[in-house]
Amino acid sequence: MEDNVVVAITGASGMAYARRLLRVLCDKGIQVHLSMSEAALIVIRQELGLELDIDDPDIDALVGRANCPVWYYKVNQLDAPLASGGSFPPGGMIIAPCSMNTLNAVAGGLAMNLIQRAASVALKEGRKLVVVPRETPLTSIHLENMLRLSRAGACVLPAMPGFYHYPEGIDDIVDFMVAKMLNSLGIEHNLLVPKEKDLPPYLKYTHGE
Q1: Which of 19, 45, 98, 150 is deepest in the core (most CB within 10 A)?
Q2: pLDDT (tens digit per residue) in 84-140
Q3: Which of the residue ranges 61-65, 67-71, 121-125, 205-209 would you say has the lowest mean pLDDT?
Q4: In angstroms, rounded to a whole number, what is the distance separating the alpha carbons of residues 47 and 42?
Q5: Radius of gyration for the chain, computed over Cα atoms and rounded to the nearest angstrom
Q6: In what order do the strands lie in the sheet with 4-9?
């Protein structure tokens, strides 16, 4: 299991995934190295109702926990340790949610900010890199760049929740995706506990009745 994880949050919908991921990592005592793009803060405000300062964000408010083991790095901090393959301790990196702007940049080998640079370092050092795009529909450019990342060694994990675990609400749907993220990072969890019950009404086949 990783004892430190780089988490990057970019400007795509799905901030509930990022918050839950951070919360689980913190609850497990895993050291989180966090960076957020400027666009991410806009979506966080829209989806979580939080007004965060990109230079000094309220991490406890973002995670929903106090005293979280999170080290924060500004997105323009290109001299941060996680921008170096030699000085930063090995660990996995996940971009969740991952905007198509960031995905395309990483696939193209760009390193114009800390998130892109850290992702490039993860790839070149052979470390785990998980990208969680949340976009639809997808263009051929998106698909080609996902393929490029996959061939480079990244795990492309689109935010596409399943329903075979009989979710009772949004929290269960979020947990499904976060469980997939943790699986990709090799981190144990108990987010997907099988439920012994009948199908919820919204999953029962009713077409034509």
Answers
A1: 98
A2: 887 777 789 999 999 999 999 999 999 999 999 999 999 999 999 999 999 999 999
A3: 205-209
A4: 9
A5: 17
A6: 70-72, 31-36, 4-9, 92-98, 129-133, 155-156
Please check whether the domain covering 4-203 is classified as CATH 3.40.50.1950: yes
Largest CA distance in the chain: 63
Integer Cα distance of 73 and 55 in angstroms: 8
Are the C-beta atoms of 85 and 125 separated by less than 8 Å? yes
Can you tell me the distance from the alpha carbon of 99 to that of 58, in angstroms, rounded to the nearest whole number?
Answer: 22
Contact 43/83 with Cβ under 8 angstroms? no
The closest of 199, 208, 193, 13 to 100, measured between CA atoms, is: 13
- Rounded Cα distance between 99 and 9, Å, is 9
Residue the block writes with tokens 């790839």: 123
The answer to whether 178 and 191 are in contact (CB under 8 A) is yes
User: Taking 80 as the threshold, does the pLDDT of residue 200 lie above it?
Assistant: no
* Residue 45 Ramachandran class (φ > 0 left, ψ -120 to 50 alpha, else beta): alpha
CA 40 to chain CA centroid, nearest Å:
12
CB 106 within 8 A of CB 113: no
The tokens describing 32, both together, are 């989180």
CA distance 189 to 37: 28
* The amino acid at 161: P
